[in-house]
Amino acid sequence: MLTRDSIAPDRRSLLKGAAALLGLLGGPSRGAPPALAGAPKAPPTATSFATEIAPQVYAHHGQVALYSPNNEGDISNCGFIVGRDAVAVVDTGGSARVGTRLHDAIRTVTQLPIRYVINTHMHPDHVFGNASFEADQPAFVAHHKMARGLSARAERYIAINKEALGEEAFAGTKIVLPTLPISAPTKLDLGGREIVLTPQKTAHTDNDLIVRDSATGTLFLGDLVFSEHVPTLDGSILGWLSLLDAEGKEPAQRIVPGHGPVSMPWPDAAKPIRHYLQTIADEIRVLIKDNRSLSEATATVGFSEKSAWKLFADYHARNVSAAFAELEWE
What we know:
The chain has 330 residues and is of the alpha/beta class. It has a single domain (4-227, 254-267), classed as 4-Layer Sandwich (Metallo-beta-lactamase, Chain A), CATH 3.60.15.10. Helices cover 33% and strands 18% of the residues. It is built from 9 helices and 12 strands. It has helices at 9-22, 96-109, 124-127, 146-165, 167-170, 237-247, 271-289, 294-300, 312-327; strands at 51-54, 57-60, 78-82, 87-90, 114-118, 139-143, 180-182, 186-189, 194-199, 209-213, 218-226, 254-259. Strands 1-2-3-4-5-6-7 form a 7-stranded mixed sheet, with no helix packed on it. It has a 5-stranded mixed sheet with strand order 8-9-10-11-12, with no helix packed on it. The radius of gyration is 19 Å and the shape is globular. The relative contact order is 0.13.
């Protein structure tokens, strides 16, 4: 198994940087799992893996961390919705092991068929658990652009994250592409329960998908909202800001962010990430106007936000670089 001690310092730094660049890149309940008391030190049991945040809506809290053998890729939020006839899964975690624990958690709640596995976007920490659901033969659902983007990065995603997790923790993990692409707002029926999928224009990525449970007003926003974990930009900073403004006007009882608490109030949950993105955009515009360089931008832009976010050193410079490239052509 790959461990921190087995990686030379220069190799560890290279791996950490590469992972940062690409990684982010029904039936009656049979007993809801208890609420989480915090990130466990050991892999959680099926009964402690997810908490019920609204009637028959469950979510799991992933650790705020980089991929490592210790967390086995459990670094993002995921969940599931139970209808009268079937279950829909929303994101599956960062490895087959995480996906299996999510699958086991579902089976502690219900034996109903898992009809849909929905991915909110293509990043490995949200899709690498898909393989654990193949035996259920669900429809794998995603934005219509996700298959293209995930296919293009598949080899690199597999290589980098396999090395980050190690052979043992990565075992069974593979790319599972969507079988049901979503190009327009789409309703899925779980039996007396409707969920609505809405594909978005380029924001966090070019393949973001919002999932709304109509029965409870719960939104699964994936990485369109980060909390605690510094945001990661793999799409358009202008598109992301525009989306947050538009979606903030839409009513919701609660949201599940891609990283952070399993349930947050809306639209208040969007305020910190919007402030972060707007700060970057504003400061870059000033530098561009003054004919300053990208290297100056990455050394100075947005550092007032450093104390507000975890993993700032791992992702912030990349965010500034991506935003600079976009904004210099405004």
